[in-house]
Amino acid sequence: MLEIRNLHAEVEGKEILKGINLTIPDGEVHVLMGPNGSGKSTLSNVLVGHPKYTVTSGRITFNGIDLLSLSPADRAHEGIFMSFQSPTEIPGVSMTNFLRAALNAKRAYFGEPALSAADFLKLLREKRKLVGLDAHFMSRGVNEGFSGGERKRNEIFQMAVLEPLFSILDETDSGLDVDALRIVAEGFNTLRTEKTSAMVITHYQRMLDYLKPDCVHVLVDGTIVKSGTIELGYDIEARGFDWIKGESQTDK
Amino acid sequence: MSSLKQYIDLYDEACTLVQASATDVLNSRRDAAYRQLQQFDTSADKLEAYKYTDYQALFAPDYGLNLQRLSLQQEGAHPKASCSVAQMDNIVVRLDNDLPIVDSKERERLPQGVFVGSFTEAAAILPDVLRAHYGRLADLECDPATSLNSLFVQEGLLIYVPSDCRVELPIQLIANVHAAQPLMCHQRVMVVLGDRSALTLTYCDEKSTTQPTMATQVAEISVGEDSCLQLFLLEETEPTHVAFHQTYLEQGARSSVELYDVTLQNGHTRHSLHSRFAGPEGRLAAYGAIMASGQQHVDHQLQINHLTDDCRSEMLYKYVLDDESVGAFAGKVWVAQGTHRNQSEQTNANLCAGDKARAYSQPMLEIYADDVECSHGSTVGKLDETALFYMQQRGIPLDEARLLLQHAFIGEVLTHIPLEPLRQRLMLLTDLRLRGRLEKCQSCRVADVCQ
Ligand SMILES: Nc1ncnc2c1ncn2[C@@H]1O[C@H](COP(=O)(O)OP(=O)(O)OP(=O)(O)O)[C@@H](O)[C@H]1O
Ligand SMILES: [Mg+2]
Fold first, then answer.
1. A166–chain B Cβ distance below 8 A for any pair
2. Which structural domain range is residue A52 located in?
3. CA-nearest residue, atom 29 of ligand 1
4. Tell me: the pLDDT tens digits for A56-67?
């Protein structure tokens, strides 16, 4: 279970998150919506420990662990994964070497021996199938020369390999064509268990259709102004954000 | 007074001793070297080629010279030499400080007509080759280290491949510096390749002492027409070592030379390459992969002279500089007047992984002909923060992430190495080097790695 309490965070001296409260129990998928610049990616980056983002107050606990006290790599080992909004290129570091390093680091963290070469390759093969990623991507540099859609697909592939407990999907749907979106969403659904949970950031209804989230939250100007069921998501698709902003203004 | 003075004085005192044990051809250049060294000593001019290496400071310490040619052999002086490149059959030759050692077993594996041995032996067997090539390419005037080497050198190694001879097995030359006291040694190598011949030479610089040492190395290499040379220079010494490598290269028509220069571990190293195309349609590709950390200093000075038509030179030198290390690259391509269709491409890229590391880059073109195709570029960068974070998010610890980026950066150079086993081994050694694990497996690191 992920619990965020009264979280304030800033980037380059500017406060972006202004008191976030959010609980995501195991087994659930929560969707986070909100206008551009409202702080969705900032919240994601804070969760994974990006050094540019400073938490000024508040707490994040994940399965009882104080997440903010862990290094980014240790957070990953504890099961936090983020599918980046703009996945970066790492020329010269092959996908295979990259994933081997990631997997073995996690195994080392839990005192397990490194995977054998055969087991590792078998794992890659299985997971590639899940998201329909061709074998030749494995010998290429991480995201090197990948198209926008291929990068997004690659994010979910990595998620499949690393089997995180809590996943953040930051606009993984944008840039994917209709078929790719279906494959990726179905892949994501296959990976769901009662122990896993996710925070999915999206601007589009199609993602709601595929994922059937348990909750939808709306983030405006660094605070969650409204939470509801999937219906709230559909309302936003139909009516935009202004009516919610209006509501929250009157609340205040 | 410059720090060269002590060597001039030493020579004044010991010239009889220096000359006594050396073969005639070595003695024939000493007067010229002496005069040249005196000039360097008294001249106040700064040498452009030593912009990034303070040779005065490096020559200042009081090293001993083994002029009496005592055996400095120590117990276990060749721990590394016993294990050559993994899965690669090599003919192994050693330089024991400056003394060539060629096993008779190894010698038997050489093709007919190929000579690998000391200058002293060569003086009896191939006197004309020795006389014709000694000091022919090594220009005394430009370089105090070459002058010093020519003044004190007492023995050398000749590798001679006659025309129409392809040496299939690579020759691995292991130059090992060892001493029980601070030592300066002068190593001399001559490679003469006839026409239509081929040779692969791996030149490994090693050191098996923690005493302060300095080695000057002068290599004169002439490659005949239609011949191929692959030359690997691998330095794996340690912080108390100072190396002046002077490589002089001349290529005949339609010849091809590939040079791979890898610095795994060193102290202060200055490499200079002077090359010239003496006949048309020659090709030279020079690659450098340099890894430095701590206080290490690696300085490359390359000068490629295009003197005839239709020659092509390529240079790709990459440096990974950690901690407070210093990397310098100066590449000069010179295209002579009246020549045609010469091509040259020069790239130097530096990755400053440490905040205090410094990179100096100075690619240069000097072109006196009209129809040339020359380009050069240089970059100095830091580790990509976004990539580092991406990797950490996937669980890769920061140190490992840094290492992967550095390895990827250097790896681009190594991919050009055509010999598969050597490429694999260098990739592995690079990985160990960047992990700081090279020093730990002292006795036989290759065996350790091969398990
Ligand atoms: N690294 C950064 N440096 C400077 N400003 C930043 C940085 N990251 C975020 N911001 C600023 O913080 C605010 C919130 O940005 P964030 O990326 O979290 O928005 P978002 O809700 O993800 O928007 P979008 O829907 O467009 O992806 C913006 O004003 C943005 O410019
Ligand atoms: Mg965003």
1. no
2. 2-251
3. A37
4. 999 999 999 999
